[in-house]
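Q: Got a minute? One more chain.
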Amino acid sequence: MSNSELEKYAAKYVNLASPKFGTQVVSATDEFFAAKERMIADSDAVFIEGKFDDHGKWMDGWESRRRRGGGHDHCLIRLGAKGTIRGVDIDTSHFTGNYPPAASIEACVSIDEPDENTEWVEIVPATSLGASAHHFVKVEDETPYNWLRLHIYPDGGVARLRVYGEPFCDWDGRDATGIHELSALINGGRVVGYNDAHYGNVWSLLTAGRGVDMEDGWETRRRREPGNDWIVVALGHAGTVDKIEVDTAHFKGNFPDSCSICAAHVSEGTDASIITQSMFWDELLPQQKLQADNIHIFDSEHFSVSKPITHVRLNIFPDGGISRLRIFGRLAK
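A: Always. Here it is, folded:
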């Protein structure tokens, strides 16, 4: 798959292997040269000329030693959120003479750490890898998984593993009368589209906790023409909104002057058609002034709509950065 197609996947789907979800590399057969945890870092891999440690050249990724007795290396990854995997990127950036010639990925569903009795499914067959390059493989499997096993043949280094997909939330058994964060990625919320996301990571908008810096949020470029910026979010479940949080953490000289939220109950359509429809949705939250580096809480007294919704469109005026958007509500039948 081409780089442009990879970029489309990265924009459309979330990286389920991100530590922001709580994803962990649980174990590896060997990590002599470079720690396994580096492989899932959110930042792009870097190369630092002349940096060495006690084991040799410092590399930004997971790297095993040279195998001399046969076999191959693998590592075990627990996804922080179960999800349907649409594609993976096995990135060997900066590994030129020490990359694995091939790799494959298996997946499973398990409450506990997999053992010898676990049934694994191969979602990425053995795939040839090259030096210092992204290797994107599309995955055709609708099953939501929460464990992965990355095999490299026979050894070597992987800079980054990205697992693009959609978080899966099983709402059966959830308290229908309770309040849930309907927009949270871990609850199935997702970004449908936006007009601009020049800075930061747009998916951070729906993650847990407060942003750690300005890069951990959605920020648009400086607008030099009339109008405003916007982003459309699909909720994990239809619901009636009880509370909204708009957090401008770390955005001090670049927070939006104000915001508003439109909403609708959408039963069908493509992402493109939903974005078009969003221009005509009812106003849920009328335009509100925002402050720098602050959590803004809006309750039902602020809302103009009380019926169940499935999607929201956050409008910011005229531009700027939002760290988190949280839509809390009760589940609709």
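A: The first strand starts at residue 14 and ends at 15.
Q: Perfect, thanks.
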